[in-house]
Amino acid sequence: MSKKLTSRKEDYSKWYNELVVKADLAENSAVRGCMVIKPYGYAIWEKIQAELDRMFKETGHQNAYFPLFVPKSLFEAEEKNAEGFAKECAIVTHYRLQSDPDKPGKLRVDPEAKLEEELIVRPTSEAIIWNTYKGWIQSYRDLPILVNQWANVVRWEMRTRLFLRTAEFLWQEGHTAHATKAEAVKEAELMNNVYATFVENFMAIPVVKGVKTDSERFAGAEETYCIEALMQDGKALQAGTSHFLGQNFAKAFDVKFTTKEGSQEYVWATSWGVSTRLMGALIMTHSDDNGLVLPPNLAPNQVVIVPIYKTQEQLQEITNLVNVIMGELRLHNITVKFDNRDTLRPGAKFAQHELQGVPLRIAIGPKDLENGTVELARRDTLTKEVIAIDNLTEKVKGLMTEIQTSLYQKALHYREAHTTEVDDFKTFKKVLEEKGGFISAHWDGTEETEAKIQELTKATIRCIPMDENTQSGDCVYTGKPSARRVLFAKAY
Amino acid sequence: MSKKLTSRKEDYSKWYNELVVKADLAENSAVRGCMVIKPYGYAIWEKIQAELDRMFKETGHQNAYFPLFVPKSLFEAEEKNAEGFAKECAIVTHYRLQSDPDKPGKLRVDPEAKLEEELIVRPTSEAIIWNTYKGWIQSYRDLPILVNQWANVVRWEMRTRLFLRTAEFLWQEGHTAHATKAEAVKEAELMNNVYATFVENFMAIPVVKGVKTDSERFAGAEETYCIEALMQDGKALQAGTSHFLGQNFAKAFDVKFTTKEGSQEYVWATSWGVSTRLMGALIMTHSDDNGLVLPPNLAPNQVVIVPIYKTQEQLQEITNLVNVIMGELRLHNITVKFDNRDTLRPGAKFAQHELQGVPLRIAIGPKDLENGTVELARRDTLTKEVIAIDNLTEKVKGLMTEIQTSLYQKALHYREAHTTEVDDFKTFKKVLEEKGGFISAHWDGTEETEAKIQELTKATIRCIPMDENTQSGDCVYTGKPSARRVLFAKAY
What we know:
2 copies of one chain form a homodimer.
Chain A: H1 12-22, E1 26-28, E2 35-37, H2 39-58, E3 62-63, E4 69-71, H3 72-75, H4 79-85, E5 91-94, E6 97-99, E7 107-109, E8 114-121, H5 126-136, E9 145-154, E10 168-178, H6 181-202, E11 208-211, E12 223-230, E13 236-246, H7 248-252, E14 256-258, E15 264-266, E16 268-275, H8 277-286, E17 303-307, H9 312-331, E18 336-338, H10 346-355, E19 360-364, H11 366-371, E20 373-378, E21 384-388, H12 392-417, E22 419-421, H13 425-434, E23 438-442, H14 447-457, E24 460-465, E25 473-474, E26 481-482, E27 485-489
Helix pairs in contact in A: 2-6
């Protein structure tokens, strides 16, 4: 198997694209910009889904399902939201094909089957959902509504990349309705925190929590909370967003409720989402030139066992031992696979599991049988050790935690080493060029300055961090007063 | 709460529509023929999904995800399949909206953003998937491929009904690829058996396993296996299908593999699916004039506890007791909800839980506290009993099994009472008219006779059952020779 990857140093972007395909995570499809998520990639996504779903339910949310299509008249009701997504909409205009009279065996759109009103394939579901909530909400007793949906959405992006930016992607979108502004703001913050906890603890990716500037805010939101992560090439990646939508959608769809006191008020809203983009963050945070590196929490197989044998008798002996080992590991909720394929040599198996990021590989050969040992190989550090088989289960359990923690620490260390406080624009450009990463700098708060800096450097304000670092200063570009530092970076 | 339903006798169809909406399962949306699945309905669907997903994985399948869109040129590649779905396709023709110059604040389709090739919103995914498999399959070593997808699909039906027939619906679709015909046939049969086991054991709905006639077969299949259930109005409902696709898609997409012996052969295929239609089957099999009746396996809350109290002190005492009860029940994996809302009276709560089909209701009042008792009310039988609290957990555990079994038995009894062997056409019409249900009759095997019977009676051949009843006879309509009885019924 010639699965050697381009190195990150050589061409980071090529490395990423090759890795996604060679590790069997996803591939491009026959539909422009749409991907096929392959079984191994989807198994990781299922782990992401399961844990997030658990966290959503623990915080009181329920799942539901709303239509894929949004009638144009609903789509355009909230003007800012409509404007924000209008340029990247897939639009259904007809509902029937017919035989093509000019081309036997071919079909064409039936010109008589034109829809009276065009349907937009949802790029996000605020419009269709708030039009539905109108029927669900009469009184304060009907609030809050805490609903989430797992769905596919379509945004007709011109430049696409597997997982990071695709015309169709999978995501969850929470849509909540509240009686008060304070409650809605609290919900938006809560869900941003849920995302941060998930991405840090489960995906081992450190994130900065913050809010977006006006220009980077979600179309139709009053405040966008976000979590930002730093990739190994020094570029930032927005890993999740949570929006306080104010009463914008309630007003657009006329959703009022009767308060306890009997008055009529518009409902307050939030929405929040993460997508298959998280797969891109996962890959680019941890992986190396040998392939994918998976934190144990997300690995479809946490441990793989490879037998080394020459005779069928040896294989049988190893298999007997492996059955005992697997039974024990599974008792401790460790997922383990015995790779006993007879079509591949051990070396090829090692290479494949390395490429696919299996956290821990156990090799067992005839000498191990004699000595009562096994060989352990850690994917993250690429280190090997031979241990006594008696300690195996405890050792593996310990390593699962250790690898998970170590990956997080490594990524955190990288981010810390690539977050630079900068106070003049010359240094800003130099740091951005030579080192990349987050630049913590003062900004005068205007869209003009933000746009100018982007024009000159391609860096955008990733977020205004929600941290304690709130000293005032002078804008790195204009020198005008700045209330606090913000985080700039080039971004995915 | 005026939630009284129309009775089944009065108007079965109206009863169904009211029940779906009033029990908070689903509702119509602003998009013609598309439904909103509400949280309570979706929670039932999640239980269906979870169990099926487990069963698919146990039989060696993995999940993946393929694009929502099918380019027209791929869609039409397998001619029969294309022909079968051409008349009900939603078609994307454009990818951008723009401001409408004639209507300020409104949007219109940008005429310049026309797609070069139209995209069909998948009505089923054979085409896009086989086009993908072409890249995955070179040799016999790449086979079998055992993949399933959970997805939404769109079929532009003209007459829609919540869950039973909607323009968009949720489903799973398995798509497998095999080296031999025998293996593919075995897979198609296996998955039909998985469906039967699931629907019978988990949903408590008895089914007949069979194969479809030529005219009812899936477009593009060589054999369609199915499970057919009987609803309370005597109409049949197709609950799941599994197709042996032969080499049709392999030929249409030129998917060949190198055999062990070195020759090139086309790959053999199956596909199989069940959808949110199962929700319709669930509702119509078990529910009554008071509302939904849920088998414990599918109930989001298997048990609900309602406190009866006048004073806050009483409520506190009851709450303390309920906490202990819930802890115990949960230890036995029974899902239980304490309905302590102070905005509703107990009677209203009883009515709601009855309408929503909670299998078991526990009421606890001051007298129960004195006597060490609770009142149990079974939803399926509408019977009540007072029992000593000491026996509660065992009693509830027993009832969960008993209700599950009893619902199945009741439905089986209904089906048996509504399956009639008929040997002449006059009786055929009379039974169909007066009693409904399945009619087991001889058929001469021709499409003409099948069509004629349908024209005269609206009954179709639901399936050729896979049972032992294979005696020959004379066609109920033409009198011509018939190899075996088949099942006729009016159907959803």
